[in-house]
Amino acid sequence: MILVTGGAGFIGANFVLDWLAxxxxxxVNLDKLTYAGNMENLAALADDxxxxxxxxxxxxxxxxxxxxxxHQPRAIVHFAAESHVDRSIHGPGEFIRxxxxxxxxxxxxVRAHWGGLAEAERHDFxxxxxxxxxxYGSLGPRDAPFAETNAYQPNSPYSASKAASxxxxxxxxxxxxxxxxxxxxxxxxxxxxxPEKLIPLVIANALAGKPLPIYGDGMNVRDWLYVGDxxxxxxxxxxxxxxxETYNIGGWNEMPNLVIVKTICALxxxxxxxxxxxxxxxxxxxxxxxxxxxxxxxxxxxxxxELGWRPTETFETGIRKTVRWYLEHQDWVAHVxxxxxxxxxxxxxxxxQ
Length: 353
Ligand code: NAD
Ligand code: DAU
Description:
The model has no long low-confidence stretch (mean pLDDT 96). Helix 6 (157-176) links the parallel strand 5 (126-132) and strand 6 (180-185). This protein has helices spanning 10-22, 61-71, 85-90, 93-115, 119-124, 157-176, 198-208, 227-240, 257-271, 301-307, 315-328, 330-338, 343-349; strands at residues 2-5, 27-31, 51-55, 75-78, 126-132, 180-185, 187-189, 212-215, 221-226, 246-249, 254-256, 283-286. The protein is an alpha/beta fold. It is built from 13 helices and twelve strands. The chain has a domain at 2-190 and 224-251 and 291-312: Rossmann fold, CATH 3.40.50. The strands form three sheets. A seven-stranded parallel beta sheet has the order 3-2-1-4-5-6-10, sandwiched between helices. A three-stranded mixed beta sheet has the order 7-9-11.
């Protein structure tokens, strides 16, 4: 089996669902269930014996040692992190604790476990660290996209904490020989994304007739990748990636934020017309994010050349699927917004703490 961390969050939950459908191999899912972790994302697995959910912190060494000894996973896929840039600006402490210290604790536990395996198992073991393109900093309008060889220049507390965790993973391979893989991916979108991030926030606000906040001039550029394509890329890296290597993952799809927001407005107008008029009327330019990176772009040629992975969704197909998913799952959004998604956690875990 494999051990996934952060598998109740946006990408982690998509990955667990995708993994069980595509690979069918059992998963131990370790997640602290912070505000971003949502068991409703995993509701389809409630009766699936291949999914073992454990609520806990990657910073808890005793818990990690017990899980590794009990389940003997052949691989770790490490998603758990604090992931929102704006939250890192308001309160960086949790980002240091989870993204740096948590990853360090996880690496130490895995190193001890891996060191005790038989030779063949040690050879086949994998530690896949899921990271971000934000570690490379910000690009000018004519700069080449980020390649794996670019220097790290993180600009936010979030990206600095992810950069630090990437360096630790690199060092554990170089110094101890731990068979690591690191992926640096661009902006994901799709089902189950917490509505604090641009795309689900804009969908939710547009449906509610609320303002659509655009930071600065709306011309910051991101590369957008459908989450299902990210999951497929991680499977490819886990199966065929060369240990000690990093792989950039991207959608070949750079777009300014304003275009993203206008595209969502147009799709909603088509699928759920608003009697009050086109949703673009709700666009509101607001004060910029401090230190806001201007442009990200990913050169994803290495993963295509070495592992044969390319995204299958265009932005047009992926955003249409995504908008449809949010329209069909407004109860999911309502539970997140009201906090009701936490009720299950309180019911199940409240008395145990
Ligand atoms: P998310 O915030 O939606 O989910 C994070 C999950 O980690 C949650 O379920 C949360 O409960 C869990 N978690 C947080 N702290 C934990 C801890 N100390 N111990 C155990 N679990 C903990 O994040 P996401 O958007 O799904 O991102 C997942 C990973 O992918 C992160 O490492 C992020 O840096 C990376 N990434 C995200 C994107 C993106 O666009 N969202 C792009 C590239 C890389
Ligand atoms: O690039 C990968 C990264 O993408 C991941 O590592 C992060 O975990 C993920 O959160 C995401 O970071 P961003 O900061 O790019 O995503 P976010 O959705 O917060 O913002 C996308 C762009 O939209 C960014 O330029 C800021 C802008 N924005 C965001 C919000 C929430 C707005 O203009 N208004 C908003 O209200």
